[in-house]
Amino acid sequence: MQESLTYRTNRDLFSNHYLDEHLPETEAWNEIDEGELRDAYDEIVDLYEREKDTAPKRNESQLEEKFIRPMFRKLGIPFEVEESTNRTQRRPDYGFFETEDAARDAFERREAGGDFYENAVAVADAKRWGRPLDTRGSGEHERDFENPSYQIHVYLQETPARWAVLTDGRKWRLYYGPTSHRLDSYYEIDLPTVLETGDLSDFKYFYLFFRRQAFLEDGGGDCFLDDVYDESNVFAQDLGEDLQDNIYEAIKVLSEGYLQYPENDLDEGELDLIHDASLIYLYRLIFVLYAEAEGRDLLDTDNEIYEESYSLNSLKQEVAAELDGGDSKYRDWQDDLSARLDELFELIDRGSKSRGIPEEDLHIPAYNGGLFRTDPDEDDGAEARFLAEHTVGDAHLARVVELLTRSRQDGGGKIFVDYSSLDVRHLGSIYEGLLEYQLHVADEPLALDDGEYAPIEAGDEGNGGGSGGDGVDSGGDTDPDARDVAVEPGEVYLTTGSGERKATGSYYTPEYVVEYIVDETLGPLVDDIREDLVGYDSYSEGGFADEFAERVFDLKVLDPAMGSGHFLTSAVDYLAREIIDAQERQAAQRGVETVDEERDINWARRKVAQRCIYGVDLNPLATELAKVSLWLRTLAAEQPLAFLDHHLKTGTLLWRRLLVSHSAVSRMVLSASFPGFRNTSRRS
Q1: Alpha-carbon distance values, 678 to 59, 561, 563, 566, 615 (Å)
Q2: pLDDT digits over 629-668, tens only?
Q3: Cα-based distances in Å from 279 to 32, 253, 294, 375, 565
Q4: Would you state the pLDDT for residue 471?
Q5: How many CB atoms lie within 10 A of CB 420?
Q6: Lowest-pLDDT range, 522-531, 544-553, 639-648?
């Protein structure tokens, strides 16, 4: 699996676990004849060897003629070229079609003034070899004014195609219409690298995804790429649900660990604080696992010092090996694991510089956010002070690490959780699904009765077997062992506010609803800005994009019940994308040199988050998770999380009113202005 990292980049489009473990078991993977695969590999290698020395020297049109179009043909793709003479026209270079006849029909349709892309199965854009695909060019070459990833997004919105290919000959990318708005969500193969491996299984990750058949719809209207995307989503959804179940267990295990560690001297009167502090501790672990996941680039996981002394990835493997070996060395009178994790949390909180580590040896910027506060004072929350003052024994903590990092397969074996398959919104949904649980300590034997814990009357016991709340709930009313002891006296257990063992559904606003609300709320305001700037004087001087951005920064977006920041994160994406659109228009009209090359999509996201975004929530953990979500979305790894402290607050309705009335803002947009959609819940 590690070898695949040298040639394959998957940025939040598909599930890496699905690609590595499940795709090779599918009919689509195995139905490809090995002879066909070998022939395709040999032909593409021959073409590459013939052109590799001259390709970097060619301009865009020469590269297309000599390498990219021949590649399309070797992949069996019927295509037609969309010739454009208008510098500002937003049309993809190529349409992919089901058959050669369909491609000719598209040509004739265009000549007759019709829609060239009407029946395209995909679109494609080609760039010169080595051209950056995520930013505008230097201005030295034709079409350097374009941001290729943004252009692909526009093409997918303005044509019927669902999939798009972007390539410079060396790198081959796939973009999907519903996720292209993020600009950095794609699947990429480095062609020379995969060819140099000489491994047909590696080559298959290129061939299967970019050949003609990848784009052709079946009887149900889905193509191979649709299936991979859908199955990846199913896997991520299942993973999120499994992880939520494991976190449910981990809260109990961790809380029990705090209660049982002798030096903590805790009692049942502090259960609410123990529960809330345990949830924060668990989210510290989840954040690190997410940040260390493949492709995130948030922590320096390749650094030897980090890997050996701090890495949670290394620790989880040590814990797994120890627990799988039987007769574990972990004891609850020891706190070695807690001490090691505390060092990791301190490194993230204060940065590597605070530990005296030279930057050239290891560079971890100071996170400096409430979630990882390791030196709290009286102004910090009670949960942070609790975690700084109490510890948990190794046996309990090893079990917690196990629950968060491994899950069971259908066959019963355990695999490590693929956190790279989870989006920020999944982390938020997991959190929101855990909100209604309350922590208890049993003072008498409890059984599960129709999904709820209930006392067992004398003589009413079944087979027994208390398990700290791990007993299996079969529904309660038909199982003859329904009165078996599920929780022994003194054990920790969780219930919902209604007394149920587990919640019966997940609570979050679906993604399509979030995007609809954000578009309907912010779209008219952005349109107003564009109208105000029609004929703007500085356009001729190249100042339109800057003025547009400043007008956008004057917008203030408030979510008065932000939860984990789902709406706010989507708002950041939307406004940042509009800023890039303004830059694209200016670059096309006045030249790429009139646009600051450092003002890319990540710059736009950070500025929008800093200047436009406000949020309030009653729950302090929600506030911290919203900060984390925005921090992760803006890729502000070089900035402390505190850059959002003044905009995301914990408070009451009174605080919300004060925020609105005292902020020096030109406009305040409430994302809760759609009460029919807000806090949508789904019960299954």
Answers
A1: 51, 9, 11, 11, 14
A2: 888 777 655 566 666 777 888 886 545 555 555 444 444 4
A3: 47, 11, 25, 18, 17
A4: 39
A5: 20
A6: 639-648
| Structure confidence by residue, pLDDT tens digits, 465-520 | 444 444 334 344 444 444 688 888 988 998 886 555 655 444 556 777 888 889 99
Distance CA 121, CA 226 (A): 12
Torsions phi, psi for 408 (to 5 deg): -90, 140
pLDDT in tens, 364-410: 888 877 788 888 888 888 899 999 999 999 999 999 999 999 987 76
**DSSP alpha helix (H) spans, 22-85:** 27-30, 34-51, 60-63, 69-74
Q: What is the pLDDT of residue 87?
A: 46
CA distance 178 to 288: 28
- Distance between CA atoms of residues 162 and 159, nearest Å: 8
What is the rounded distance in angstroms from the CA atom of residue 631 to the CA atom of residue 642?
Answer: 10
Residue 44 CB burial class (10 angstroms; 0-12, 13-18, ≥19): buried
- Residues 295, 199: Cα–Cα separation, whole Å: 23
* Segments in 376-510 forming alpha helices (H): 382-389, 394-405, 424-434
Distance of alpha carbon 559 from alpha carbon 672, whole angstroms: 6
Q: CA 251 to CA 493: how far, in whole Å?
A: 9
What are the strands of the beta sheet with 446-449, ordered from one edge? 452-455, 446-449, 485-487
CA nearest to 416, candidates 12, 5, 16, 4: 16
Report the alpha-carbon distance of residue 386 to residue 382 in Å, rounded. 6
- Hey, which bits of 547-680 come out as E strands? 555-559, 613-617, 648-650, 667-670
Q: Is 12 left (phi over 0), alpha (psi -120 to 50) or beta?
A: left
d(CA 495, CA 503): 8
**Dihedral Cα 397, 400, 406, 408, nearest 10 deg:** 120
Strand, helix or coil at 383?
Answer: helix
Q: Which residues lie closer than 8 Å to 490 by C-beta, 6 or more apart?
A: 441, 442, 443
Characterize the bridge pairing of strands 163-167 and 122-126: parallel
List the structure tokens of 448: 């599960």
Please tell me the distance from the alpha carbon of residue 562 to that of residue 75, in angstroms, as a whole number: 47
Q: Please state the pTM of the whole predicted model.
A: 0.78
Contact status, residue 486 vs residue 466, Cβ threshold 8 Å = yes
Coil, strand or helix at 138: coil
Query: How many Cβ atoms sit within 10 Å of the Cβ of residue 637?
Result: 17
Residues paired with residue 613 on neighbouring β-strands, in sequence order: 557
Distance CA 419, CA 602 (A): 22
Are the CB atoms for 613 and 572 separated by under 8 Å? yes
Amino acid at position 296, single letter: R
What is the rounded distance in angstroms from the CA atom of residue 356 to the CA atom of residue 659?
A: 40
| Residue 78 DSSP SS3 | coil
pLDDT of residue 466: 46
Q: Find the helix or strand (DSSP H, E) in which 441 lies.
A: strand 438-441
Burial of 150: CB neighbours in 10 Å, binned 0-12, 13-18, 19+: buried
Distances (CA, A) of 391 to 85, 263, 277, 334, 373: 68, 8, 11, 10, 15
Which range (254-268, 298-312, 529-543) has the least confidence?
Answer: 529-543
Query: What's residue 542's pLDDT?
Result: 56
Domain residue extents for the chain: 2-216, 238-422, 440-501, 508-683
Q: What is the pLDDT of residues 127-154, one digit of tens each?
A: 999 998 987 655 454 554 578 998 999 9
Mean pLDDT of 578-607: 84
